[in-house]
Structures are given as C-alpha cells and as structure tokens.
Amino acid sequence: MRNIIGCFFIGLIAVFSTFAQADSVPIIETSENLSNTITQLTSKNNELKNRLKWQKEQIAHITTHQNTILAQISHVQNTLATLDEQGEWLSFSTALGETLRLQLLNLPEKPKPQAIDAEIAEAKVSQLNDNNSLKQLENYPNLTKNKFDNRQINEYRQLIREQNELLKTTMSGYDTIILELTKLKIANSQLINAIDSVNDAAHRYFFWVADVNPINTYFLLDFAKDTLFVLFSVDTASQIYHACIDIIKTPSLLFLLVITLIAVFIDFKTKPKYNQYLDKSASRVGKVTQDSFSLTMKVVVYSLLMALPIPILWAIIGYVLQMNWQYPAVVALGYGVNAAAPILWVFIISAHFASPKGLFIAHFAWPEFQVRSAMKYYQLSVWVVIPLVMIVMSFDHYNNRQFAATIGRFSFILLCFALVFMTNAIHRAGVPLYIDKKGSGCNLFSRILWVILLSAPWVAIFAACLGYLSTAQILLGRLEASVVTWFGLLVIYFMIRRWMWIQKRRIEFERAKQRRIERLAQRAKSEEDHTTNSNTPDVIDEPVIDLDVISAQSLQLVRSIIAMIALISMVLLWSELHSAFAFMENIKLWGTKVIINGNEVEHYISLSSVFIAILVLTITVQLVKNLPALLELGILQHLDLAPGTGYAISTVSKYIILLVGCMIAFSFVGIDWAKIQWLIAALGVGLGFGLQEIFANFISGLIMLFEKPVRIGDTVTIRDLTGTITKINTRATTIVDWDRKEIVMPNKAFITEQLVNWSLSDAITRIVLTIPATIDADSQLVMDILLKVAKECEYVLNDPEPQVFLVDIQEGIQLFEVRLFASEMSHRMPLRSEIQQLIIKEYCKHGLTLPFPPLQTNLESLGRKTGRRTYTIGTI
Q1: Coiled-coil regions in this chain (predicted)?
Q2: pLDDT average, residue stretch 490-496
C-alpha cells in the first residue's frame, strides 16, 4: 500500500514537472536570444556533469553500505549458528552464557527502511524530470545560417547534443542507483530477519538459563565490594556533573526541562482547585436530581491530568540523561529513570483515585477502610519501589551488566519484598480481581488469581537467588503489567456500573414524580382528602436500586466484553515471550502419521501443541458464551430484522464457531479431518439408526430457527399443552405454561405434529362464549344486553367488533353465542372473567335468570345415557 501511494505521488510530481517545464522551450529570433539560450544550455550541462559526479559517489557509497550490511548479515548468521550449536551447553556453564551474551550485545542495530524508500522515490522523481527535459530538447528550434552566425549555431548544436547525451547518462545512472538501493533494501530486510532470528534464539536458549551465579556465602562481600567500587572508584559523580553541564549548554534539552518544570509548578498550583472540585462532585454524588455520569468522567480525566506532570518530568530527565552517550553511567541512569516513569504515573493515579472524595470512595462507594488498607504502603511504593526499579534497570544497562549479579540482584530482591507488602495489603483490603455473574468478587477464579499474584514475588526471589535473574525480572514485569491492565479494566467495569445505576435511579425518580402528580390530581378532586393531607409535606422517595438484580443481563454483557478485551490484552502482552517457551516444542507426547506429498511421515505432538489447543478451545468457549450479547450489541440491534431472526443468526453462529474452533484445536493435537472422516461416516450410520430421533430433533431445530414456525415469546398450543416459547435449543424447545412450569418439548414435534401458534403473524385471538336464557325471555333484549356488556369490557376490541347470535334452542332454553376478540393471549382469561361478571349483573338488573337442566344432571349422576343435546357455558 505504501509503494502504491509513493508511485501515485511520483506520478503527480512528474505531471506537474511536465506542465512546469512545458513553456521553458526558448524562442530564438535574434542573436541576443541565441546567446541567452547558449548560456542556459551551458549552465544546464554543467549542472548535469556535477550530477553525474554525484551519482558516481552515491553509487560507491551505496555499494560500500551494501558490503557493510552483507558483513553484518554474515556476523549475525554466525552468531545464530553459534547459539544453535552451543545452546544445549548453556545450562552447564555460566561463563559460556556470558560469552554468548556479549556476542548478542555486539549485534548491529536494525536498519531503518524508510530512508531507503525516500531515496528511491527521490531518484525516480529526478529520473522523470530528466526524461521530460530530454523530450523538451526535441522541441528546440533548428537554426538557419542566413539569420545567425555560424560559430553560434555550431556551439548551440554542440550544446544540444551534449545535453542529450548527459541526460541519457544521468537517467542510466538513476537506474543504477535505484537498482543498488533496491539491493540495499533487500539486504536490510535480510539483516532484520537475521536479527529477529537471533533474538528469538536468544529468548529460546537464554530465557530459562541462569544468567548469573547462584547466591553463595561470598555474595554479601561481593555486593559490598561492588558498591564501594561504584561509589568511589567509578567516576559516577563526575559523569553526572559533566552531563548536567552539557545539558545546561544544550538549548533544546534545557528547554524541555524548563517546560516540564513549569508544568509541574502549574500542577501544584492547581491542586487546591482540583480538591475543591472533588469535594463539589462528591457532594452531588448519590443525589438523584444532581448526580450525573459526567461527574465521574471529569474526576477520571482530571485525576489523570493531575497525575501526569511529575511522570513526564521524570521521563524527560531520563531522556536527557540518555542523550549524554559519552558518559556510560549517566546513560544507564537515564534508562532506569525512564523505566520508572510509567510506574510512578500508575502510583500517583491510584493515590488520586483513592482520595476521600475521589473515584473509589465517593463515586464507586467502596468502603473507605478498605481503600485505606489497600493504600497502606503508598509511601513505600513511591520512596522505595521507584528507586529500586531505577537501580535494577540502570545496572541492567551499565557496562554489559557488570554489577547486575550483585547490586542489581540485591536491589531486585528488595523490590520483590516491597511488592510482597503491597500485594498483601491490597489482598487484605478485599479488592476483587474478578467479578462473577452475581456481582461478587469472592469466587474461585478471583482466589486463583490472588494466589498467583501473592506467590509471584516469592517465586521471583527464589529464582533470582538461584541465578535466574533475567528470567525472574521479565516474568515479574509482565505479570505486574498484566495486573495493571486488569485493574484498569476493573475500573472501567465499575464506571459502567455507575452509569447504569445513575440511569436506573433517574428512571425511577421520573416514575416517582409521575406518581406524585397523579396523587395530587386525585387529592384535588376530593375536598376531604385535600383537607386531611393539606399539612402533609410531599416527599419523593429516592429508590434504592439493586443493580445486579435489575440490570443482570446488561452487566453480563459488560462482563463479556471486558473479559474478551482482557483475554486479548493478555495474549498481546505475553506474545513477546513466545520464543521463550519454545522448549515445549522439544517435549514430545505422542506421534501421529501425516501424509505429505504422497509419503507417510511421522509427526510428533509436542507439549506446546497441547497448550495451543487448550488456548484455542478456551477462546472458542468464550466466543460461544459471549457471542449472542456481542452480536446483539454491535450488529443485530442496528438491523431491521424480523422477530426471531436475530436469535437464529446468533444460534447458527455459535454452532459454526464451535465447529471451527474444535477442528482447529483438534488439528494441533493430530486429529485432522482425514483421520476422523471414517468416524464421521460411522456416526452418520449411527445417526440413521440408533440416534435418528436426536438427529431429527437437531435438524428440526435448525428448520425452526430459519423457517420460524415458532419464535421466542410466541404463545403456542401443541398436543394438550399451551404456553409461551422461552428457549429454542439444538435438541428441544422449552415452553412455560400458565402454571409457570417449564416443559421441554422435542423439536421434532413442532415440525411433524399439528401446532397452533396464537401469535405467529397476529396476536389477536377470538373468544366464543355460550350464554343460555330461559325460553320466555325476550331474545332481542338478551342480545342487546350481551352487546352492551361486550362494549363495556375493557379487554374486548372494537375492531373486529363483537358479535351476538341466537344459535340454538334446547328443551326450553335459548342458547346465545358471543364472539369477542382479545388483543393478546394473556387477555383471554381476564376478558372471560370480567364479561361474565357483567352478564350476571345485567341479568339480575333486568330480572333474567340463567337456566339449569336438573333432569340432565340427575341422569348423569345415575350413570344413565340421555339423548338430549347438552351445552357447555363458556366454551371456546
């Protein structure tokens, strides 16, 4: 893409150059014009000659650079070969490890390909300009001898020919330069690949190998000697003094320091205003009419900004010290200061968040004693941890780690002890590392994380004592960075919880206001109520909302998204150490046969393949669990889909992801499609016989998801069961009936049996009631009464309108049918109850009676058969 854009700009430059030079062809009409043209041609030819000279020098310089790069490639390849040959002996000789580490320190730096790309682009532009100039030479006029002097004409023509040859030569020279630069670019790429290979090999061989000698009885003596040597024998103080003098004499570095000092001064001056804003925002938090999420966002932003100047000053100091390359001790100190700057920023941010009116206590409502307990060793972190980090990182970069085994290791062990105190304080404060579905931080996964975090400093101390100093430093650093990332995501989770809590409180408050208005309207209608309650103040109760109960689904979605972000962050953070765990490739567990180019080859499954398969399965399970919420939030809610389509898409997507994830995971452990196809075929036969019902239910479930004869939330009647669809799974569908019982129905029944869906395309249902009346009753009066009560019932729809018919006469009884329509299935029973109450009330009002056939009841009680037609009141 970068090359395409570069060529595009080169073409534009060439076009503009063509237009710019199109009018530069001279018009020669007089001797004076000819003299000026000759002067211009001479100047141009001299410029082309100088460019040819520069081209030769440039080609020689590029060739020299190529030879240097090739020599560096050879050196790096030899170093890689040495590592591969002697890597297995590193665990037996510390001296060999130190020798190989010195070779790694002497590796060349990675070249910067951007400069070569710019030179190639510039050469192409110059070549295009020369090509345009060559074309313009053809437009120069041919002079006649009648009008001008022969000497001038000959000189003019000779200059034209000379410029033509010079332009062709320069264009050829640019071709050579572009070719040589391309070769140099390829060589740079080879050098970069070789350096990356050496670094991977170094991680692979050195990471799990002791880089210093184990601690013995002479360690304290060596530590004292090295400390005295650094303080008195090495001119550290002199180097720092001269570096400070050089900084003062360098305007750019001094300007950076002055700017950052001004920022720190402004930070201290604005601290009272910041504290005032914290007090003001904390006083508004929790009050439904004043609280808002913007208060929390402003506190977060202001806290980050207030914590920024000092770490920036720290980083600038480190940068300035690193610029003094002539003083090795100062450069090493600069590395240490730079490494401590982000850690210092995290500590200051935590202090701002943990203030009494800050984010944790005032906005998140965390118990103040827990926050105070967690920040118990804050002074320790600032005045002990930061200097120790500086010392450890400084001696890692000073004089080929000359004092890393003594001063560096001792400082690292002290740093681990400080981390022990800090992590224990945070753990005793009850800070959760993982929030489960119930919103609780007390769960198994959180306890496992705390065990890892609490034991990590002790393991690092033990490894450093055994000589694995670099390994302990790298792993502990990655772990602490993971903890900081994890806590950052935890803060984001609680911020989202607070936003949801504010929204819920606001909704409840608006509802309470509406209820208050309704109560006031009712009081205005009744003088007695107004008199009774005139002295009673109107109090609006601010409801206390349990967010984990009310917004459980939304919080589950938030947890799913944050869990995915945390997983991706951990993978990216630890991916740099992938070569360090390459030793697992050598641990072979079992073998399998693989067909390659028609030949059967033995392929061994290593421990790393098993771990990768487990990681793939873990990611697959997380995707399957969290995919519906992520799809609903990111895509489906923005699409105009029919009811149930989104559920079908989510379900099928889960099946596809599960299938693909399992196939990828199985391929890492040697179970590929070629080996399981016979098993699949055998399972197919089994599905056709023993598992045909399960297979039929599975296919029926897919048909239900796409054809949608039933959807989530539909009210259906199948067999003698009526209820609401709540789940459509792979094998069965769950129906909740009117008694709140869950019935699991096989999917096959919904496809092969008769099904009544009361709400598939229209939720309106018809209810038919059979109402009797005596034979002497006025039938028109009865019909009018039934129509009247139908219109009075609030559950009866006006469109379609209710209907009343006299449908039959049985043994002195008139039978009327009332046909009504309800808007939804849940209104059927309330409609029947209310309208029958109204009918009884109207019958009593008009002196009508409901007949009852006693003879039929007596005959039925005796078990005799009767030929009379019977009726059932209230049939559908």
Answers
A1: 31-58
A2: 86
